[in-house]
TrEMBL record:
A Pfam family: FRG1
Gene3D superfamilies in the record: 2.80.10.50
Location within or outside the cell: Nucleus, Nucleolus
Coiled-coil stretches noted in the UniProt entry, renumbered to this chain: none
GO cellular component: catalytic step 2 spliceosome; nucleolus
Protein name in the entry: FRG1-like family-domain-containing protein
Keywords attached to this entry: Nucleus
Family according to the record: Belongs to the FRG1 family.
Keyword Nucleus: yes
Organism phylogeny: Eukaryota, Fungi, Dikarya, Basidiomycota, Agaricomycotina
Region feature (Disordered): 1-50
Length: 283
């Protein structure tokens, strides 16, 4: 029988394991740049902290430094609901507790999938297990994960603070928070006016997607990605337009378009009339 210990690190289908490369720290480099170099040498599936909001994408692990035990946001696919789970639930007396920033997911239910439209400051948070439900928040602050389609209530704006923690703001300009409900249990709410302890989360993403975010940002700054050239039809299709991809506008927009077209025709007719009179005058 082999004495080799089997790794318990959570991996995802299709990911390739890469060997870590040793490197020497340059004493003249700052801590931020040194950390960036270390992350560049890490394997793609390594969990790292985001430094900017646009880096939050792909598989995402969300934790809160609750007391006495930190918790992570998980999804119970059997009951179809969000659950706040202690990250120390499998802790034993013999196993030391790592710091919260050193934590990584141990179950697929703890992993969420973050997507965003290119150039948009908002993100969508979808379950990583089950049928893929989006995290939403209504105007009363009720947070759930039971919708298969995304809309305004499924949009979140991440805010990254200098200490590395993240807050999530919804379309009502309120913040996601961990709140104590009846019975002493903890639940997610989305009606906080300000960011305090309950509204700050530790978020970990995979190194692969952080690198992709930086590559896209460099292309955007170099002008290789043009975010200004957007037409109405393509924008509606990108933002999930209904009606089989047909561009649909409101009644007010239609009236404005008709009025603009009418004024345009009148202007053209007036110019033609002036040109004709000028021509007749010199005949």
């Amino acid at each position: 029988m082999s004495d080799k210990v089997r790794s318990t690190k959570l991996k995802f289908k299709g990911e390739k394991t890469k060997k870590k490369r040793k490197h020497e720290d340059d004493g003249d480099e700052g801590p931020s740049r040194r950390r960036r170099k270390e992350e560049d040498n890490e394997a793609s599936e390594t969990w790292v902290l985001p430094e900017e909001a646009h880096e939050i994408r792909g598989p995402t692990f969300i934790m809160h430094p609750s007391d006495p035990s930190p918790i992570c946001i998980t999804y119970d696919s059997t009951r179809g609901r969000i659950v706040l789970q202690s990250v120390d639930k499998d802790k034993t007396e013999d196993s030391p507790s790592p710091s919260i920033v050193e934590r990584t997911p141990t179950d697929v239910s703890q992993v969420w999938v973050v997507t965003r439209v290119a150039g948009s400051p908002t993100i969508n948070i979808r379950t990583g297990v089950g049928e893929g439900k989006f995290v939403s928040c209504d105007k009363h602050g009720l947070v759930s994960a039971d919708r298969e389609a995304r809309g305004p209530q499924e949009e979140w704006t991440p805010v990254v603070f200098p200490d590395g923690m993240v807050a999530f703001q919804n379309i009502y300009e309120k913040y996601l928070s961990v709140d104590e409900v009846a019975g002493g249990q903890l639940a997610l709410r989305g009606d906080s006016e300000e960011v305090g302890f309950g509204e700050r989360f530790w978020v970990k993403i995979q190194n692969k997607y952080k690198k992709e975010a930086h590559a896209e940002e460099r292309k955007r700054k170099d002008g290789l990605i043009d975010m200004s050239a957007v037409d109405e039809a393509s924008t509606n299709k990108i933002y999930q337009a209904w009606g089989a991809g047909k561009s649909i506008v409101s009644v007010e927009d239609k009236k404005e378009l008709k009025r603009a077209k009418k004024e345009g025709r009148l202007a053209e007719a007036l110019l033609d009339r002036r040109a004709k009179l000028k021509s007749d005058r010199f005949c």
